[in-house]
Amino acid sequence: MALLVGQSFLDPARLQGAKDIVLAELKRSGLEFVIAWPGYRPVRFEARTVSADGGPLTRFDLAQQIILAYALFFQKVGEERLISSMAGYNIALFQGSKARADTPGIQFMQLYLVRLRKTSVGCWVADIEIV
Fold first, then answer.
1. How are strands ordered across the β-sheet holding 111-118?
2. What does DSSP assign to residue 86?
3. Which of 47, 63, 78, 119 has the fewest CB atoms within 10 Å of its CB?
4. Domain that holds residue 23
5. Using CB atoms within 10 A of its CB, is residue 15 exposed (0-12), middle (13-18) or buried (19+)?
6. For 71-122, how does the pLDDT look when each residue is reduced to its tens digit (9 = 90+)?
7. Handedness of CA 43, 53, 20, 30 (dihedral sign)
8. Residue 18: which residues within 8 A CB-CB, separation 6 or more?
9. Backbone phi and psi for residue 21, each to the nearest 5 degrees, phi listed first
């Protein structure tokens, strides 16, 4: 999938194969997507496997759903002042232009979406790199 999250949210030109149809083989209209960030409680989201108009889902449509889920997760961490129980995985409580030196951590803009994969228990997770 390979997409720099913060800079590419609305730009399909930045995603190779953005118009490709994905997940067409699934026989349901949604899938369970889990963010299992180290040191935080896992958060579950429902992702559509068809477009908003009921047609096939594109790679870009799916990427936008994943990015939105991560944005909501980061927002929750900031609003609830959650701290990772594992050193090195803290999400910055203040993001973007509101970032503060006294609360360092990973910024949403540093996320790089590599791929989406199905786990052995049937839910889906995104492989994310920090850049």
1. 3-4, 111-118, 124-130, 30-35, 43-48
2. S
3. 119
4. 3-130
5. buried
6. 999 999 999 999 899 989 999 999 988 988 888 899 998 998 888 899 988 8
7. positive
8. 12, 58, 59, 60, 63
9. -80, 135
Which residue, 107, 122, 123, 110, is CA-closest to 35?
Answer: 123
Residue type, 82: L
62 SS3 class: helix
Q: In the beta sheet, which residues pair with residue 116?
A: 126
Is the CA virtual torsion 23, 41, 111, 81 positive or negative?
positive
34-83 tens-digit pLDDT: 999 999 999 999 998 888 888 889 998 998 899 999 999 999 999 999 98
On whether the CB atoms of residues 7 and 107 are closer than 8 A, the answer is no
Beta bridge partners of 43: 35
- Rounded-to-integer distance, Cα 36 and Cα 58, Å: 24
Q: Please state the domain count of the chain.
A: 1
